[in-house]
Design brief:
With 358 residues, the chain is α+β, with helices and mostly antiparallel strands. It has helices spanning 88-97, 136-148, 211-214, 223-240, 260-277, 310-330, 345-357, and strands at residues 20-25, 34-39, 46-51, 58-59, 75-79, 103-104, 112-113, 118-120, 167-168, 171-172, 174-181, 187-194, 249-256, 289-298, 335-337, 340-342.
Length: 358
Amino acid sequence: MTLPEETDGQDGITDVSGLRVGHARVAGPGALSGTTVVLAPEGGAVAAVDVRGGGPGTRETDALDPRNVVQRIDAVVLTGGSAYGLDAAAGVMAWLAERNRGVRVGPDPSHVVPVVPAACVFDLGRGGDFTARPDAATGRAAAEAADASGDHARVETGAVGAGTGAVAGGLRGGVGTASTVLESGITVGALVVVNAVGSVVDPANGVPYGCYFTAGRLVFPEPPVHEAARRRLAEARKASAPPPLNTTLAVVATDAALTRAQAQKVAGTAHDGIARAVRPVHLMNDGDTVFALATGARELPEGPGPLALNEILAAGADLVTRAVVRAVLAAPGGLRGPGGDFPSYRELYGPVADAYSR
């Protein structure tokens, strides 16, 4: 199985017109965490969320329930720092309020309450300092970076933003993104933060699980390379013994005009994309959460009726899989320090990573 063709743009979530992405990193020695903001266009976007992990850390997700009052949101925050890092959303909220963006609650244009859903990954202590985590200033910096990035800007991937200290099955994780344009002309994009308890690599041969679904041709590591990688990873896991607390986060976005219920379906189906690329998934010590955003610039095709949503559902899951693979391949050299020993896939399987990155 292969994914839909890439777009002619950046092959990232910002190919959905109006969306911008910004990253910020926690400063200081011993810090290895950060925040990523997905900023909606002026006027906001229809949004939904689906939480599958058993240990989520979230904020304002109840506001996205289609039964509740909030119709559109202006930003989604993905952050490190576990539940502490959810403070980053306050900085984004303040930044939006200064621009009169949010739910209008009074007669003056400044009378707004920005609704900023957020979810966090566990990366506490990965850099050695347990107290080095995102706060409101980190969130504001990420929002400012998103705003300054411009339309259709390339999204930086790898160990950035919320993926700065991410780890996936003992390997270094990070941020990945992908997009496609469907036959209808609708654009769908995805952005992920891969920080999973489960593995992203098939232990039998070293192939990233997601490549079974995204690669036109599988590239297998040479057996001696794979055996050396297995030994190195086993040693790193034994040396690190980190708390088994993780989470994979995703945002799936489209320029289609969706109802809140349809966006909810997109968020739910997108979890299939995580399940293809991470095994096992949705455990009690994961907090796997997927947000969906719909900007409403394009109407769904009329002919298929309700089934018109199907192509977006399928694409969203496929793109999440591809974004997970890209996050793992984009991770730079491994981490080795007081917070643990986390080699990167590229460090273990360099030529194979290069082949899949083409």
